[in-house]
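Quick one, tokens below:
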């Protein structure tokens, strides 16, 4: 944008969060203002949150960061759902919810995330988009603050913050889970820990001290950061440690936690096989599945499926070009869009492909992908039907059901459980007779479907035969 353009004022119609009163750009004169255009479904928008936190801490009284929530999905237009996302992502700067995309259009935004930098005089001085902008933004802010100092217009003032935290509860935004004959393993993501409970919900063991970090050791010492997908193989529990960009392992015999793969930093690779697992940077691993010696990883941040050979201790890109799209075909021709849920069965890997509101199928071991439900990045809804005629909204979990020959789907942004018949390709709602709020995890054990009812901080037990659903008391 041309530096001579005055930044358009924010409209009075916005819904505000994290601030005691609505903000006006004219009241921020003398300070730098950074507008972050984001939507809470978007993995790229999640990735830039640490950059924003860094800048806020570096310039606490000279920079005002304002998140302009610009929704993609209908669910994201609902203010109370935005508040849930703010708390789930631990965002502390002011958020303006713009469901009509008014600010988005006023500033000519075309992609998530995008940034508009406004100088101390109220003029737009930079327009950027995409991840990895911390250093560039830092340099620009330093430059324009120095310029404001020279012009004698720089002012400093702390930004008042008013948060609306979640109520205290045993779980905080539980995401994924794994059920065995007498145990549940839960990713208590908002508390940065893994819980082992019995089926009644009694906590037997807790892995992780509740503080975000990447530390190995015993269960009291260990730290995770927003852990998601889980899978148990013999006496080992594997964990997709999402915000650490790492694959962790819990020895259930000793209680020790170690790191199998990842450096703690976000990586970006297109095609390679890697042998030193602790030197390869992963990219928001979100879920796990297992088949014949291979641990499959939904690498949500890179729009790919990765594979780890547990015997050879190697990891490689298995399917997906890295392009965010919905494309079928052979391994590196196919494309995914933020794959977030995995389930294996009968030589097939099923994928909840969130940003295309799709369910994909990868034939093992050939790595040939086809699409069961879904048509495109901007094709979504809530509709029963046959295969690609049906519509979902940002599904985050799938569970293969061999005995009933179908797939249970957490249709997350429709807050529903759906059923896909593998023979007829019919998609129908499953009425579980219990209110859901963005469920993001499923685990099937025999005739019981376990559900992570994420935004209500609950785990639900659904008896498929009796059609009864009850919350379990985590204690």
């Amino acid at each position: 944008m041309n530096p001579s353009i005055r930044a358009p004022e924010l409209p009075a119609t916005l819904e505000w969060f994290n601030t005691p009163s609505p903000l006006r750009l004219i009241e921020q004169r003398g300070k730098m203002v950074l507008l972050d255009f984001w939507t809470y479904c978007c993995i790229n928008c999640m990735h830039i949150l640490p950059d924003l936190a860094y800048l806020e801490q570096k310039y606490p009284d000279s920079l005002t960061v304002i998140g302009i929530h610009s929704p993609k999905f209908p669910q994201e237009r609902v203010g109370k759902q935005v508040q849930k996302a703010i708390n789930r992502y631990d965002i502390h700067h002011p958020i303006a919810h713009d469901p009509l995309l008014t600010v988005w259009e006023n500033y000519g935004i075309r992609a998530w995330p995008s940034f508009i930098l406004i100088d101390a005089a109220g003029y737009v001085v930079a327009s950027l988009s995409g991840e990895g902008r911390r250093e560039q933004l830092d340099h620009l802010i330093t430059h324009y603050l120095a310029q404001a100092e020279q012009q004698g217009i720089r002012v400093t003032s702390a930004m008042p913050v008013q948060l609306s935290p979640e109520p205290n509860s045993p779980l905080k935004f539980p995401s994924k889970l794994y059920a065995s004959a007498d145990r549940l393993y839960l990713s208590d993501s908002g508390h940065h820990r893994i819980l082992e409970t019995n089926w009644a919900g009694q906590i037997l063991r807790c892995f992780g001290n509740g503080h975000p970090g990447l530390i190995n050791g015993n269960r009291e010492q260990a730290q995770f950061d927003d852990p998601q997908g889980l899978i148990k193989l013999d006496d080992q529990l594997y964990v997709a440690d999402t915000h650490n960009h790492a694959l962790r392992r819990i020895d259930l015999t000793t209680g020790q936690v170690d790191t199998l793969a990842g450096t703690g930093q976000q990586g970006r690779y297109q095609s390679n096989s890697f042998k030193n697992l602790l030197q390869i940077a992963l990219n928001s691993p979100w879920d796990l599945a297992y088949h014949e010696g291979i641990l499959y990883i939904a690498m949500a941040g890179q729009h790919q499926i990765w594979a780890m050979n547990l015997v050879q201790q190697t990891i490689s890109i298995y399917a997906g070009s890295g392009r965010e799209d919905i494309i079928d075909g052979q391994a590196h021709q196919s494309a995914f869009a933020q794959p977030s849920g995995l389930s294996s069965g009968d030589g097939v890997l099923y994928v909840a492909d969130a940003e295309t509101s799709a369910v994909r199928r990868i034939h093992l071991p050939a790595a040939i992908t086809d699409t069961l439900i879904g048509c495109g990045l901007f094709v979504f809804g809530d509709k029963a039907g046959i295969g690609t005629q049906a519509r979902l909204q940002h599904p985050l979990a799938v569970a293969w059901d061999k005995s009933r020959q179908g797939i249970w789907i957490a249709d997350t942004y429709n807050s529903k459980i759906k059923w896909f018949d593998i023979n007829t390709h019919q998609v129908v709602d499953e009425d579980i007779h219990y209110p859901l709020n963005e469920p993001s995890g499923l685990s099937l054990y025999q005739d019981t479907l376990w559900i992570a009812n994420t935004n209500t901080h609950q785990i639900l037990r659904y008896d498929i035969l009796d059609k009864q659903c009850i919350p379990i008391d985590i204690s």
